[in-house]
Amino acid sequence: EWEMVLEDGTRQSIEVPGEYEVPKGEEFVAETLLSEEIASDTWLCFHGRQQDMEIYIDDELRERYTTKDSRLFGKSSASALVFVELHREDVGKTLRLVTRSQSMFSGVMQEIHIGDRFSIWMQVCAEQGQKVLIAIILAVLSLITIVASMILRIGYRKQIVLEYLGWAILFCAM
Fold this sequence. Notes:
With 174 residues, the protein is α+β, with helices and mostly antiparallel strands.
């Protein structure tokens, strides 16, 4: 069971996944007790949606995800899957998730995956595979359109409006 830890130290039971009222830029802190038996090669996977994430197990920082020092523009980190390895010794310890976001995803907790890395990736691919496939198809079609438009532009020595459509579709695919 997850609990949201408020600034004054009070705790509130929460559901995961879920959305909670947290002002942009403020920390969202959620904790749970690792009470089940942990097998070897067990991982947790958190989906950070434009959120900086820190994951602690009994005050030991296990994983940090942020693009604060590397992003060229914007205020939020890119969405990412953040993996944390669990060890058998972690049973009975407190898992704390701290997120910060300047986006509308402040206070949002996505579904948490647990298992070995390969099975988590397979589950994510099964859930998101259609979106990725559509994006790849759109990108390929847009590149074909752009190249064909450039060839026609060179051959007819005039601007082909179809090229703009190709660029628009390519940006949508990204």
